[in-house]
Amino acid sequence: METIAAKDLTLGYGEDIIIDDLNIAIPKGQITVFVGGNGCGKSTLLRSMARLLKPKEGSVVLHGEDIAKKPTKDVAKQLAILPQGPVSPEGLTVHDLVKQGRHPYKTLFKKWSTEDEEAVNEALQSTNMMDLKDRSVDSLSGGQRQRAWIAMTLAQKTDTILLDEPTTYLDMTHQIEVLDLLFELNEKHNSTVIMVLHDLNLACRYAHNIVAIKDKKVYAQGKPEEIISCNMVHDVFQMKCDVTYDPMFGTPMCIPHGRGRCLIKSAVSGEETCSVATSQLN
């Protein structure tokens, strides 16, 4: 069953077409990752799915209905988006930031409720941010700050979360911390997670479904083990690589070709020599 679908979708800015006549369906209850070269339209596609960018042609369908025809608050109760590099007002506490996720449920006559407070506390607990709720967001580390923003999206109580490069500018430890959190949310709550990632190996490790974008269209879509290959990486990223298996997770792992120090010694001459192993995944 699909959560979001794009039908004959064309997107762009002014006269510049970024996505052209694209069709795609995002499976419900899975983690889907958009991958592709810089400027291929990954973030543009994600923004259109959150109704932040109006299509030039075609439509985005959310739970069977054209998202453009749905009331804004109805959309906000069904999906939440975390843009790239969000910035909070100076001095805003984590608790106050997370409270913003309850905005879609506010009306002129409905004040802050016990239900709202419970949703905020649950979001803080799910992201391990309860102990930091009184800290200002701008005083947090990169990983903590990203968890605070994710907590805000959780407080919206949507079944779908969209994230644009949630690991950008984070060190390796905090990248894994954030991706582990999203993986746990998917497992525990059957959340549909859709995100843009640049690291293809992390995408393979965490995604159930990968969408590779090239030339304004979907080049390939499916399970990482089904679509990630040397040819696919070369076509989409213009990069030669070997594709083997992650020794810990068994997921596809790309080893890019290129220059660098070589510590492999020839069995014949005993001299250092760089050779590329035959790919296990053609």
UniProtKB/TrEMBL annotation:
It is found in: Cell membrane. This is ABC transporter ATP-binding protein. InterPro entries: AAA+_ATPase (IPR003593), ABC_transporter-like_ATP-bd (IPR003439), ABC_transporter-like_CS (IPR017871), P-loop_NTPase (IPR027417), Siderophore_ABC-ATPase (IPR051535). Keywords: ATP-binding, Cell membrane, Ion transport, Iron, Iron transport, Membrane, Nucleotide-binding, Transport. It comes from Aquibacillus rhizosphaerae. SUPFAM superfamilies: P-loop containing nucleoside triphosphate hydrolases. It comes from the Bacteria. One of its GO terms (molecular function) is ATP binding. PROSITE patterns: ABC_TRANSPORTER_1 (PS00211), ABC_TRANSPORTER_2 (PS50893).
